[in-house]
Amino acid sequence: MADTIEAPTARRIPAPAVNVESKPFWDAAEQGKFLIKRCKACGQAHWYPRALCPHCFSSDTVWEESPGEGVIYTYSVMHRNTPVPYAIAYVNLDEGPAVLTNIIDYDAATLKIGQRVKVKWTPTEGGPPVFTFAPV
Amino acid sequence: MSIKGKAYIAGVYEHPLRDAPNISTAQIHAECAKGALEDAGLTKDDIDGYFCAGDAPGFGAMSMADYMGLKLRHMDSTETGGSSYILHVGHAAQAIAEGKCSVALITLAGRPRQARMGGGGGRGGPPGGASDVPEAGFENIWGGSTHNTYGMCAMRHMHDYGTTAEQLAWIKVAASHHAQWNEHAFLRDVVTVEDVLASPMIADPLHRLDCCVVTDGGGAVIVTTPEIAKSLKRPLVKVIGAGEAPKGPRGGLNLDLTYSGAVWSGPIAFEEAGVTPQDIKYASIYDSFTITVLMQLEDLGFCKKGEGGKFVADGNLISGIGKLPFNTDGGGLCNNHPTNRGGITKVIEAVRQARGEAHPKVQVPDPSLVLAHGTGGSLGTRHGAATLIMERE
Question: If pLDDT is split at 50, 70 and 90, which confidence band does B340 have?
């Protein structure tokens, strides 16, 4: 694998499917704010955001702004059927939940599990920006 | 076995909304579930069986089970249109009567009035827009495929347990040794560990030869009563145990991609069959990728967690050489993977082995107990595990 900095944003990201339940997240994304959901009944955060807590099933869930920081739990760089290799990954947020994402602006030679990353918004084709993560 | 008197309706709930522009279809499913639980005086954690039909957004029962955070040992997404949910009560009663689950949840929800917003599903059919699938907006944007989501599992397994690319390659090598005897196999050439490692990288750390083939084709299975089976002129292969379970991130806490739903489906099947992994003489193990096989072997208890790499190395899966002959038709890695669904061919080769009708070069000497296990969906996101144990009578 080349040890140069790749440009995964060359992979065009489609507009995310937005529905009434997820709309507040994507409205905040337009403002550059990364929101997660937390349950007021059991106190735990979860991802992806839901109206009912997937841990305790309470409907008392609230949006919370997150700094969007965490560590790479795992990743895989895709080489097949793509003009530019790109890294899909799970990031364990500091708040707890794991988030499926793409890592951008990474150096293929140093990309690794445990690496600290922070959310960095990437434009999409005709939709709100999406929560890619970049090494810090 | 009759269902008569074996199952009761404990809770019901009808959603009050008739026009629901402001909540999602998944949320309506969950609110109905919550309402029925409250009516019954039960909690979410009591549910171990889930039934839904085509109105449930996503992939079978998996998206909604994950959305609601359900931990299940029985699921059924039989689709017969508007009658589905009546049929589901009958299926749930069967499952309860047989001890497959003790609290079954059935849900229905949809928003046909919102169809113009892409959020509904009109005319009684399945929902239309991708936006109905609860995880879609957050996940379907990342270029995820089977290759790179399974690649993430392999990457973490290597990190946690020191599993190597060479060990994974042994799984392909074993499959190729079997496929050479199958005249119908898509790939019949015997390959080496070096061949696998030299093949192009597809999604780190999986090489092209770590991946299954893409083929057309199909299969069928007939299951019948003992009386009919004994009246036929074929070897008797009896179903003695079955287990099933979905696995997903369920809210993302303590994500662990190094194990599969087989950790739940396997013990259910082994307990029902009254046998242990060490009793199994032949195993059909779903092989979408080499890592799929390795994780499932560990999770089913054929070796300890984390020791799958050592277990599969040096030909241990090759019939006539190793301790656990697997996928003697060449499996998905070499033989076929019809319409990207390998479950039925896993059952078929296990039955051939149990009957003593596998190719003589790969037939195991004592096929009294055989197993077929599969993973559907993605190990890296959400999947359904199924284990089946059969006995030659």
Answer: confident
Whole-number mean pLDDT of chain B? Answer: 92
Contact A14 B30 (CB under 8 A): no
By CA distance, what is A84's nearest residue in B? Answer: B143
SS3 state at B77: coil
Range B297-305, long-range pairs (CB < 8 A, 24+ positions): B297/B324, B298/B259, B299/B259, B299/B260, B299/B261, B299/B262, B299/B263, B299/B266, B300/B262, B300/B266, B300/B371, B300/B373, B300/B387, B301/B266, B301/B267, B301/B270, B301/B276, B301/B277, B302/B277, B305/B161, B305/B258, B305/B259
Q: Binning pLDDT at 50, 70 and 90, where does residue B116 land? A: low
Dist CA A122 CA A100 (whole Å): 15
Chain A residue whose CA is closest to B115: A19
Q: Residue holding tokens 């996928």?
A: B327
CA closest to A79 among chain B residues: B202
Please give the DSSP secondary-structure letter assigned to residue B335.
T
Say whether A78 and B203 touch across the interface (CB within 8 A): yes
Higher pLDDT pick, A126 / B2: A126
Smallest CA–CA distance, residue A99 to chain B, in Å, is 7
List all residues 6 or more positions away from A23 whose beta carbon is below 8 Å from its beta carbon.
none
State pLDDT tens for residues B100-110. 999 999 999 99
Chain A residues with CB inside 8 Å of B165's CB?
Answer: none
Neighboring chain B residues of A59 at a CB cutoff of 8 Å: 31, 34
Q: What is the DSSP letter of B82?
A: B
Which of A51, A79, A92 is opposite residue B203, by nearest beta carbon?
Answer: A79
DSSP state letter for B258: T
Confidence check: pLDDT of B89 > 80: yes
Residue to mutate among B31, B138, B157, B289, with most A CBs inside 10 A, is: B138
Q: What percent of chain B has pLDDT over 70?
A: 96
- What is the share, in percent, of chain B residues with pLDDT greater than 90? 79
User: How crowded is the C-beta side of B342, counted as CA atoms within 13 Å?
Assistant: 33
Which amino acid makes up residue B53?
Answer: A
Q: What is the mean pLDDT of the segment spanning A74-98?
A: 96
Residues of chain A contacting B206 with CB distance shorter than 8 Å: 76
Contacts of B134 in chain A (CB under 8 A): 21, 48, 50
pLDDT value of residue B336: 94
* Neighbouring-strand partners of residue A86: A78
Nearest to B248 by CA among B103, B70, B29, B56: B70
Residue of B nearest to A129 (CA): B141
